[in-house]
Amino acid sequence: MAENNNLMQALQTLIQSETSQINTAVDGIIESYDAGIASVKPIPKQRFVDGTSLDYPVIPNVPVMWPRFAGDVAGVKGPVRSGDKCLLVFCQQAADDSDDERRFSLTDAYCIVGGFGAAKDRAAENDQMQLYFGEAYIALTEEGKLLINAPAGVEITTPETLNKGLLTTEGQLSYQSGMSGKGGATINGTVKATGDVQGSGISLTQHTHQEHDGPSTGPAK
């Protein structure tokens, strides 16, 4: 019976020793990032059967993964900075197909960036879906309203913009390449123009009036 116990203990120790070399997923911290490749320091320690532990080394050349769709022409990404948290996932085989025997190696890691938890300073906005960066954000409300807050401004590059609803601006409206439209216009306030104003082809500055039983007036000065 003692021999059986010793054999079982030896087998258990062997299995634990082997499985301790299997890397699956650990939390990490970005040490550096460049063009989609990061160096990552795993946060926990490696723990061994004999009770000892050892810091993981910094893992270089780790591809950073982002959600991508539609044959990689659509996706979501964010800015990556040193100190950002991430999840390291280790492949069950060599990621570059260079070694058929390699399994769950530290060299075959992928990095999923993102610190998970409560969104800082945004816990009260529980009725919105937000994409934010600092004070700037785009939000969708439960009622279907789109909210945009851009402290540094909004820049749109597009050949054409179509608005199918009422457009209201609380600030000054300015343009650089002229303005045209259909329908009437109602303005409550003074209209000023540095150039001429025409109505039905008649110039405001050049037109004349025929005075009753008198001569025509000259153009406006």
TrEMBL record:
UniProt domain Phage protein Gp138 N-terminal: residue ranges: 28-114
Coiled-coil boundaries: none
InterPro entries cross-referenced by the UniProt entry: Gp138_N (IPR041599), Vgr_OB-fold_dom_sf (IPR037026)
Region (Disordered): 189-221
Protein name per the record: Phage protein Gp138 N-terminal domain-containing protein
